[in-house]
Amino acid sequence: MTLRVGVLGAGGFGRALAMASARHQHDVVVWSRGGRDLPNTIAVSSDIEAMRDRDLIFLAVPARHATSAAEQLGRVVDGRHLVVHVSRGLIGEDLKTITTVLREQTAARRLGALAGPLVADALADGRPSGAVLGTRFPEVTDMVREAIGGSEMRVYDTTDVTGVQMASATVGFLTVILAYAQGVGADAGPLAVMATRGMVEAARIGATLGAKEQTFLGLAGLGDLLAVVAGDDRLEARIGRAMAQGADPRHA
Amino acid sequence: MLKRLFSERPLRLPHLKPYVPRPSDPSIFWFNSERNDIVSDVVNRICSAHEPDRGRLEIALNDAAYHEIRRLEKQRDDEARDRLGYWRSMIRRIGKMDDAEQKRVLNSIVTTMAQDVAGNFDPRVYGFARQAIPRMIAGLMEPRRFTKGFTMPQSEVLSRVLRVQGDIEHLNHLQSEGSLVFVPTHSSNLDSIVLAQALEVSGLPPVIYGAGKNLFTNPIISFFMHNLGAYRVDRRIRVQLYKEVLKLYSQVMIERGYHSLFFPGGTRSRSGMIERRLKLGLLGSAVEAFTTNQVRRVDRPIWFVPTTINYALVLEAETLIRDWLTEEGKARYIIEDDEFSRIDRWVAFFRKVVGMRAACIIRFGEPIDPFGNVIDDKGASLSPAGETLDPGGYVERRGTPTVDAARDAAYTRELGNVLADRYERDTVLMSTQVVGHVLFRNLVQQTPGMDLFSRLRLRNEIGINRKLLVKDIGEARDRLMELERNGAVHISDVVREEAPDALLEQALTFWNGYHNATAASPQDSDIVVGDPSLLLYYQNRLVPFAERIADSGQHKAACEIEALGVHR
């Protein structure tokens, strides 16, 4: 059955999710001001109204833009919509998860967070990849698998929504630190200590906030960190290396 | 014997002429004419869910027999003598029964359970109760005016002691448009009585609610409970089928438009803290009622009314905090020996609160739909952006309303989180709680490094300079007022208007005249902490706000206090 898929953001992940959904013959609309490099089978709109008739919406904007994107989305979504975000990060001084922000800004309740060693290019091109989806709603898992899953893309699921998002944000943070440490010449031993202890401590904080510690040891946490160590050249790693070369953290 | 007769068998008044409800009567007035239909609806749904699968049916029957035998063997009472033989014989035969017999036995067990759970509603008892109960309470408060109280049109005493807050007009409008589900915090067994009174004085409809079987052990209360629509919840019964009956009974009642009440905390807050971990069973029944109505295309909205019940003095405070501290609370759901079952404590309690302005404040919060959205004046759900929503969309799967237990369980969990946040926001902090908190924080400050239980043993050992204490109370009050302006909590008029010194004096008077233990007392220029556990009980209401109302010198103690609430 053809799904109506919406994607907010046309960066690396937005583009990859749109292309993966289109490859599965779904009707895809990307909300973006640019919408570069997208095939003709994918519609692009700069009007948020284009999301109103979608079944499943992926929020694929950087975490720092998640609140304003959620606010705009809040004008057009209701209880029918299923919304899944792929942003790695926590918001504001309260370190809110992005599903919390979506919950506050929109009427959507069937929410999910897609995380793990998801590589945008692999997802876009249909190369083997895997991810974990944190959601309490089995329907969300079913629909995400229908939209982008398959033999080349394995989507695991967990009900630990908080854990997935905190683990994912921790990976982002640790990636900057590890790349910085590598850049300034730290040995492999201290890097391993930082990575492991960093994850363990984040897991303890997560457990206090209601997450499961084991989620941090799964795809959203250590699994994703392994992808970083294996050379997945993501933005956070580039920031860490730039800082090691003396760049101002605000501009790195 | 007589007590058992009254509590086990509902005492009903004879019906010489059946009451015919008028269109203006609240929905509960139709209950008796629908009672049998409701019971059979519950029985049919449970039986049809179990019957197609012999394995599931056998498990249900074995589970029922196993748990009932265990319970009755422990009870060793009249009920055990009557029923133990039945269950023992049944458990031996389950495997040998053919399909038809198993179904017959299931139907018989579920019917007995549903009949036991279902209540009764007698308009005459309702009419009597709404006139007499407030006056009886007023009489207990002011015995000298007891007889006069019965002739007064409205009890001034009661209205001085009980305050109702919230948008009553909005709720009054909604009651005729859909089913209201009141979900209050739970501190005392008096809650259901004062809430019924608050509904009455606000012109809101009477509600059905599940009352613990312990409330039925008192023959007088049992009579009123049986005849005012309450359904019986026997927490001793661990049988899965019984839990299904309770949940479905609540669900069917809500589906049919009966306004209901249940306490999502499940039991009285033993610690005195605002509930955070809610029991989702009955909450789920209301969410499923909404789904079922949508699937059947019945357009009957269901709205939840988060409600806080705030007491300056709690009838059972001493038993509750002792229970929490000894962790007995986890096992002792039914406490039959607490203050609620002792009439002398009732009299002492009511005589004490009569001197208190607004000793009990009931705050009806903003109503929400089953998905946590606020409701406008006309009953429409609103998105955070203020757009009108169709709540039916939440239970649609690709355009069609569907029953999905996993999805509804997830919605229920979300709703539980929303309610817990609302409880915090809608709590009205009372003078005894604020003073209790400041005293307890001083105790923590003066005993660095000590654990909670060591501190609780410090009876009459810690003195706090009265002037400093009054200053602390004033500062805490100012910070609470700031929190109130930001919508984080509410404070009572007494806390807002009285001088800090007067607040301290009042709190000491209220505690020390009623509770057996002395919470704190003046000695020279100090206030000496008497029983820290009593202070702990009252101050626990402020646990979520402790850090926000502390200055830098008090911050460490406030953090320790706030940590008490991590696992609440």
Kindly describe this structure.
The complex is a heterodimer of chains A (252) and B (568). By secondary structure, chain A is of the alpha/beta class. Chain A is 45% helix and 16% strand. In chain A, helix 2 runs parallel beside helix 3, helix 6 packs antiparallel against helix 7 and helix 6 runs parallel beside helix 9. The longest helix of chain A is centred in the last third of the chain and has 23 residues. The model of chain A has no long low-confidence stretch (mean pLDDT 93). Chain B has 568 residues and is of the alpha/beta class. Chain B contains 23 helices and 17 strands. In chain B, helix 11 links the parallel strand 3 and strand 4. In chain B, helix 5 packs across helix 12, helix 13 crosses helix 16 and helix 19 crosses helix 21. The two termini of chain B are 41 Å apart. The interface between A and B is medium-sized, with 21 and 27 residues.
Compose a concise summary of this entry:
The complex is a heterodimer of chains A (252) and B (568). Chain A is an alpha/beta fold.
Q: Oligomeric state of the chains?
A: heterodimer
Please compute the radius of gyration of chain B using only Cα atoms: 25 Å
Low-confidence stretches of chain A: none
Shape verdict of chain B: globular
Q: Give the overall shape of chain A, derived from the CA principal axes.
A: globular
- List the secondary-structure elements of chain A in sequence, H or E: EHEEEHEHEHEHEHHHHH
| Count of strand segments of chain A | 8
Helix proportion range of chain B: 40-55%
Tally of helical segments of chain B = 23
Let me know the average pLDDT of chain B.
Answer: 87
Distance between the termini of chain B: 41 Å
Sheet with the most strands, sense and barrel status of chain A: 8 strands, mixed
**Largest interface: pair, residues per side:** A-B, 21 and 27 residues
Average pLDDT of chain A works out at 93
